[in-house]
């Protein structure tokens, strides 16, 4: 289990795989740098979740719902962003782990709700005051 440091803020970010045609490459960048940056995710927009600025979060969701044409945007929660060659990138390994944990938690909550909604289980609770054990 990974424990996140308390002082690291969580970001809600919109990312996209970096592409020299879409995002631009400088003339001074070598082919090795361009090849390396093609493997990275560029942070298009982000907001700090610790601030709880709901207007910024709404703007991010609007951008994610209505992306520009020919863009493959991903919405991730991450705690690691960094600058490289004057561009902001996101570490997808950290974001992937956080998003997987959130997805697993939401699946468990859905399973628990489906279990409780089942008519057989509701009838059992009416009779005995608790849900049946699995």
**Helix percentage range:** 40-55%
Approximate shape = elongated
Strand arrangement within the widest β-sheet reads 3-1-2-5-4
Question: Helix tally?
Answer: 5
What is the rounded Rg? 21 Å
**N-to-C series of helices and strands:** EHHEHEEEHH
Describe the protein.
With 134 residues, the protein is an alpha+beta fold. It has a domain at 11-103. It is 44% helix and 21% strand. The protein has helices spanning 20-23, 31-37, 54-65, 92-117, 119-128; strands at 11-17, 41-48, 74-78, 81-84, 87-90. A five-stranded antiparallel beta sheet has the order 3-1-2-5-4. A hairpin with a 2-residue loop joins strand 4 (81-84) and strand 5 (87-90). The two termini are 26 Å apart. Mean pLDDT is 77; it is low at 1-5.
Keywords:
5-stranded antiparallel β-sheet, elongated
Outline the fold blueprint.
Blueprint: E1 11-17, H1 20-23, H2 31-37, E2 41-48, H3 54-65, E3 74-78, E4 81-84, E5 87-90, H4 92-117, H5 119-128
Antiparallel strand pairs: 1-2, 1-3, 2-5, 4-5
What is this structure, in a nutshell?
The protein has helices at 20-23, 31-37, 54-65, 92-117, 119-128, and strands at 11-17, 41-48, 74-78, 81-84, 87-90. With 134 residues, it is an alpha+beta fold.
